[in-house]
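Data availability excerpt. The first of two example chains:
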Amino acid sequence: MLKHIEIGGAMRPVKFTINALMEFEDLTGLDITVAEDRMTIGSLRNMRALTFVGLKHGHKKQSAVFPDFTIEDVGEWLDQDSMDKVMDAFSTQSKGGGEQQEEDLDKKKLNGETSGQ
């Protein structure tokens, strides 16, 4: 499932595929399960890496074009709200739950069809 989040002044696709998670492990040197524990105690380095790979693979899934941002750009964009949205997307995608509902809501958001949620 492809989810869109508002980050860096734009709605951007985010996707946590197996390849994205493997890239995360390569970037951090951590097993994803260990990283999940560390992110709950506030590792900004891991959060930036997770956000970067999710955005990168989301862009690739949506358009097959390599995104025009760097991991440093992602670090500039991160704030508490965007980190919450990334973790929500990660949690939803890693559990595979609610995919159709999330996808439908995403489409509505992109089309400006949601009401004050």
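And the second chain:
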Amino acid sequence: MQMQQMQQMQQQRQQQMMQEFQMREILSLFNNITLNCFKKCVTTVDNKDLKTDEDKCISSCAEKMLKFHQLVGTSFQENMKLVQQ
């Protein structure tokens, strides 16, 4: 019984570590998108609102970065499946 409890605790700890890792990755992705798209698209900071072209640029930039991140993630998962076989 103790062995089974230890295994369950270990699995729970691994799940917790994976969730923490995923949260760090999400925050890192968000920060990278924000920083990179801001640098690329925002030309002035003299107004609290974005200009129309800045807004479009940021939307396009963020969409491209998210698609790229999804593509890399999918590719990574497929490669991991091949390695595990």
